[in-house]
Structures are given as structure tokens and as C-alpha cells.
Amino acid sequence: MGSSPMVYKSNALVEAAYRLSVQEQRIVLACISQVKRNEPVTDEVMYSVTAEEIATMAGVPIESSYNQLKEAALRLKRREVRLTQEPNGKGKRPSVMITGWVQTIIYREGEGRVELRFTKDMLPYLTELTKQFTKYALADVAKMDSTHAIRLYELLMQWDSIGQREIEIDQLREWFQLEGRYPSIKDFKKWVLDPAVTQINEHSPLQVEWAQRKTGRKVTHLLFSFGPKKPAKAVGKAPAKRKAGKLTDADIAQQGLALPGESWAEARARLNQMPLDLA
């Protein structure tokens, strides 16, 4: 089985203000993973993804993928992105730029296929990236069914080498375009933060924990700590290491380690050549 395609995004795009549904995210990310990051790409290049590919990628029934793909493709044409930073770490833009994700999108009904062209303004945030970009495997987010989880995962992976990130809640609301929604921190945690962290911990390679920080009496910042999941422990006990010279006749008798007709000396000689579970 081949490795998962990689997604590369300028950090400026990771921190842009936009909102996409989960299905729209899957279409965009599947196509971004096809962009040649190190080569010039024009806005004439078409990228495509099928309902079957998305169903396989996300682990969802093919029927639901077909039903959702067309609607998501049509909505995607109207989605906008608000960018305040230049790509490749060139600093703040002289003015805020609002652009679309795609300039052309085609849905091929009989094939269950979406084809799209990214906008000319979007391509510098996806191609010829040399610094200040975020990368991760498409499979890391493919099974997430929370758009906030996908966005938060990208924001954490931006600081992957550090393993910690502090984000102002109002800034996160702006990036997610949630201004005016979930105004209380209790609702924000319930509907945005907790589901996102749960999804990341369940479906991605990261294990995430978070805490909050107050300014005065108001919760203003979220502090995330994260790192690769620890490998699962093997089921059952590992053989205990034998301490040389400490195995007694009583140990052998108590554990029933001697073979039929075997003397204590013969049993010790045999057992000294193998690890013992004396627990």
C-alpha cells in the first residue's frame, strides 16, 4: 500500500479566515495533495477527485459520498478566503485580499467526479513554497467529520516541531469565521473545541491536550500541548528478565517449570537459557 498523498499549505493560508463544510474540505484537500509544490503551476491545470476516492479516503459509504459531492462542489465555487499575509513568509499583505478557492468547477454526473481549477490568487499559497509552510499527510484528516477539527489540526501541525501552541480565542473565531456564534466560552468548548480535539485524538497521529488562560476574569487564550501518539502496548505480559543465580529449586517447583522426569539441576540448566515469567 502506497503512502498517503501530502498536503502543503502556506502558513498564511493555514491562518486565513474561511469556512468550508467537511465535504468541501475533502474536495479541496484531495486536490491540493495533487499540486506539485516545487514546480510552477498555472491556473489552467485541472485537478479531479471522485466520490469513490473520497468514500475510500474518509471511510464513508459510497452512496452518501455521491449524494454530497455534487452539492459540495457547487457550494465550493462560491466560497471565499480572507488573506492578510503573503505566501512564503513575505509578511503582511499591503491590504486584505478576499479571493475564491476555485475559478472553475465541473461536476461530471455520470462519473461522480469533480474537476476544478484553483484561482490564480490561490496558487502562490499552494505552489513553489520554500519557507513558512505546513505539511501533513492527507490520511491524517481524511476520516475527521468536523471541519473545525481539520482546521485545528492544521494550526497545530504548523507548530509540529515545538509541540505547543497558544491561540487567542477571538483569533480562532476569526480564522474559523465564527464571529457572533457561540459567544459564551461554555458553548464554544461544547460545539467547537471539545469535538475538534476528540476527532484529532481519534483519527490523527497526534495526541492533544489543552488548557485555558484568563486575562482578568475572562478566558482569552487556549494552550495546546501535542505530540505523536505512543504506540499501543502489546497484549499480555512480556517475559520477565531472569536474575542470574537467583533461580532456586523452590522457584522451579512453585512455578511448575520442570519437565516430567527432569531433575532440578537439569531444569535449571534448561531454564537458564530462556527468559522466565516468574510473576
TrEMBL record:
GO terms for biological process: DNA replication initiation. Residues 7-157 form the Initiator Rep protein WH1 domain. It holds the Pfam family Rep3_N. SUPFAM superfamilies: Winged helix' DNA-binding domain. Transmembrane segments: none annotated. It comes from the Bacteria. Belongs to the initiator RepB protein family. This is RepB family plasmid replication initiator protein. It comes from Pseudomonas fragi.
